[in-house]
Amino acid sequence: METDQCTFYYKSKTVNSALSRTEWIQLKEVLSFHDWKLVTLALPKSCHLSSHQVTVSSSHICRLYDRFHALDKDDKGSLNRSDFQNISELAVNPLGDRIINAFFPDGMDLIDFNSFVRILARFRPVDQNPKKEPNAPEPINSRVNKLKFAFQLYDQDKDGKISKSELLQVLRMMVGVQVTEEQLESITDRTIQEADLDGDDAISFEEFKKSLDKVDIEHKMSIRFLR
Amino acid sequence: MQCNRFKECASLLVVVLLICSSTKAEQSTTNATAGNEHGAPPSGYQIVTFKWHHVMDPYIIALWVLVASIAKMLFHMSSKLTTVIPESALLIFIGLLLGGVVWGADHTASYSMTPRLFFFYLLPLIVLDAGYFMPNRQFFGNFGAILVYAVIATVWNAASVGLSLYGVYLTGVMGELKVDGMLDFLLFGSLLSAVDPVAVIAVFEEVHVDEVLYIIVFGESLLNDGVTVVLYNVFDSFIAIGGVNVTGVDCVKGVVSFFVVALGGTLIGIVFAFLLSYISRFTKRVQIIEPGFVFVISYLSYLTAEMLSLSSILAITFTGVCCQKYVQANLCKESATTVRYMMKMLANGSETIIFMMLGISAVDGGIWVWNTAFILLTLLFIAVYRVVGVVVLTWFLNRYRVVPLGFIDQVVMSYGGLRGAVAYGLVASLDEARVQERKLFFTTTIIVIYFTVVLQGCTTKSLVTWLKVKRSEHREPSISEKLNGRAFDHILSAIEDISGQIGHHYIWDKWESFDRKYLCKLLMRKSALKSSDQILDVFHDLNIKDAITYIAEGERKGSLAFIQTPNTDQLVNVNFHSSKQSEVDASMSVLKEGASAVCLDMQAVELRWKNLRESEDVYTHHLLQQYLYKPKKQLKYKYGRHDITSTEDDAQEKEIFEKTMKRRLASFKSTKYGVSQSKKVAKHFKKDPSQKKRSDEMLSNGGQLVFHDPAFSDPEHPHEYEVISNGGSNFIPNVTRQALADTYNGIDNPAFMLNEEPVARQALPPWATNNDTVVLSQRARVQMPWSPNNVRRLMPLRLSGRSTDSFLLADVPVPEEHPLSFLPERTAL
Questions:
Q1: Which residues form a coiled coil (chain B) (predicted)?
Q2: What is the C-alpha to C-alpha distance for residues A125 and A118, in angstroms, rounded to an integer?
């Protein structure tokens, strides 16, 4: 009965994308396996999103849900920092902690599945031939949004600018210990000089975007998994 | 200079070549006279005798190996050569050359690789290496796709090539062949169906392809060797029965035996892997021969499977795949390294010998039979059916795969369908009594191998780069592009890790828990099981070390109030401000020299200014190039048999891991006091002591948390804390006035930087107001952050960190199931 309810809810929310058979089977696995209330709580919202902005397909959502559940060690229905910190690969990623923090905006300490998907959705590859809809909102996986995610990692105090010390911190994480502090500072100065257009010794988002005009962000910040 | 060295070595090679051929020639002459010498009684006691025959066989083998190794050495003298022509092709050339020299000297075939040599001594080493270094998680994560390619594609290749050739034969284009019928062609098709990965892997190292393709191609090539041999044996026994006598029942038996042989071989492999892991648990006292067990038992699995007429290749593959985890954990560090290097050395050596033998064996007038139509059609069918097979199977797989294989992947897979040593070994073991066209098959196989290895091997890379080049233009990136580009790489790999891109996680997780619960306990040494504690030790040592250097530095300076440590070892000092300053000075002096040449001088100044900037750029680029952490490429080194380059990665991983742990420790330290998280990160950490002071005061008011570890506390004043018991369970670190005076003198030590805290509850910047706010689920809202729950979880760390006042925790119940939950479970240390 619960499953039927779920189906109904799920289908009614995704009018645009009919479920294929395999997708349905996958979804059913998820439903019988996990707390169904959680699914109704989590899935429809992201599916609602999917019709407008995200279009993460339901098989991806199921896949991500499995992953979410696997990360969620004590079945609390949400992830906290230590769940992320348990991913051993992140401990050897120089920016690992920053990225974990990016999953917890505004001082939150737990995120639910919905937000999890929403953040990962930014890393979907950009559609090759986007449908032209004049008043459609900007898709969440657009170039600008991808850049914003990166900018966020630098801009820890959220004043909309990357200051020198913020850049220095990130740089310190990304280079080996052989490089001295002074060398780092000069590299930082250099980078800011290069990108800074209005001379305020900091990089605003616009300047950040401009300095990366020639980089293929769409390609570099997309994971194939979510294609 | 390199050119000179190259010449030297070339002359060395020529010398060795001459020795080789002369011994060969001598051998034939001594052969002729040997009878006489032995017949005649020795004329007296000889002090020294020349006993060539006594040592001939091993001597020749050793010489071949030496020549092959020297040849290999030469190839790598010039870095360009091997990037243009794959090593395997070069080795074939050398083999041809050597064979030619010997042929020219005395018109005999110098040496030919016997199937026995190949299947008993050379192949197992290569396959064992591949199995032992197989990244298990990815292998089993893509097991379905690998099986499809290895089994279905191989059967498809064999059947389509065999049947097409038979069809063409019926039309009479090839003329008259002495064949029984279809079965001979199917046999031929099956022996040509195995794809050799060597050249493809070499291409992969150069061109960026993603891990999934890597593992699929690698796994496929490994398993399809086994499948090919099984197929070959089935058809071979059909021929032995005789084409007309094969009934429907025999066909069914053939299919059944296919599965029995393959699965049986796998099972044998797993059993031996279990045995090997179990034995390696008890080899502590015989460390010297520890590595020997790995090789001997793996080889035994190969022989056992061969004895039971099961697939020996699959047996040794799965021995390697299954035992690696336990063996690597059980063996001591030196033995593990020995095993790694031995494995690579033997595999690389066998490969070298095989390809050189391929060249040498071809120089033999007795084996060549030419049939233009047959040979050309074989080449054509092999190429076409490989492409068809790959495209169709990929299309089919992509419908079910979460990570689809793209166009370039398919091109690489189909164009990289090289045939190699296995085909040669099989065709050499054909029985001429049964297959009368053996010589034609042999010739064709050799030509197919040469054609694919040399031609396709040489062109694959340029093809792929040509396909890829369309997308990206080459341009020197600016510093910020470089910096951010690298940051993007790291971000992406982290996101991939978080989203768990590869593998069936549910099954894998189940397997892992089973593994942890039962297998590890059975197969691993107790000391190896404790390796998780090692992380803790590293962690603790780090902090102790920091504290010691911190204090030592203070003593050296005579006071604890020291400032940022000046860096004494500046390798490259790029100071932009000062250089600008000097530039201005220089231009001023130029202006002073003469007003008449101002215009010219201004140009010169601009030029110099530009040059200076460029050189700064070069410096900075160089610096970044060298020291920016490389994005994760953890798998690549495992596939190549050419070298082991894991040390650099390991060092980097260790460094990053230490940094991460330090940061986590620092942030943990601040949260432990319940410091509000809204501290401005951008502030320089010099202000941290005051921050700490405040937090300590907060503590005294709130009275929440209870202990202090010297290693973690502010080591500037290790003896200035007084513990005041307040109500029994609380104590308040009392910072003296001295500490206040020191407030603005910090030390530049990352371990004490508290800069990693997320900033909370601040006004949102304009760009973040897009509907990105996270809505907590109801459950999430119930669990409030920083509840005592969270704090308690971290306490075991303190206990094990030999905290001086851990007795204060005695009455706090310590949950056991989540020790150190903020540490990763497993690390690559």
A1: none
A2: 14
